[in-house]
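Hello,

Our lab assistant flagged a job as stuck in the queue for most of the afternoon. It eventually completed. Since we weren't sure the result was trustworthy after the delay, we are filing this so someone can double-check. Below is the sequence as submitted and the structure that was eventually returned. Let us know if re-running is recommended.
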Amino acid sequence: MSDLITFTDVVSGYGALTILNGLSFTVRKGEITLLIGPNGAGKSTVLKTFFGLVAPRSGTITLHGRDVSRLAPADKLRQGVAFVPQGRNLFGSLSLLHNLELGGVTLPRADRAVRMEEVLDRFPALRERLHSAASSLSGGEQKQLEIARALLLRPSVLLIDEPSIGLSPIVSQAVFRLLRTLADGGTSVLMVEQNVKSALGVADRVLLLESGRLTLDTPAAKLLDDPDLNRIFLGKSASKPQPEETSC
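-- returned structure --
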């Protein structure tokens, strides 16, 4: 498969704190690429840097072969990139319908109506609760709504950070199956997920980060069968105190 996204020697961080240290990797079209590693390794920072929430200090990021290193999030959306961050990111007092409409606010009204039907066909449980407040939804339904809102733009790339957090195992598996379906349909998914074994079951490739550098790039199926999976996931820095991953 062709490379869709390329990071080349990317350095990025927050203020004086450097998180990504000359990071290089690729993401291929129509695959789920899973980012793993210990807390503070830079997994979430990869997503934020690619989406434009954190500006790279040096290095190059390309999408479809074009340099997008300095594009703002709004420009990334227009380039077909959608981001579902960690935690709940909904307007709780607004209805599901209004939350979805806000996700498609840049679309012409006619296009928005068509795409709303597309995503509601994919999420029938949301259609049944369309006029309910988003805050009244279960954790799994809220995550479905976040993904549905992102899909309104028909993204070619979906960035998703910890999709299973706070969800039951059954709901988590349903979310992972949905991501697999999206990838099989041609959407490239770049995912950060602590529930490594479940995520490996749907991922194509795994990138292991440690201290902001790539230390392993391997097929997911190969890593799933590795008896030392926990050691690989934790990395050499597992014994050292790590910063919270919510900012890295």
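-- support follow-up --
The delay was a queue issue, not a problem with the job. The result is valid. The chain has a mean pLDDT of 88. The chain is about 35% helix and 25% strand.
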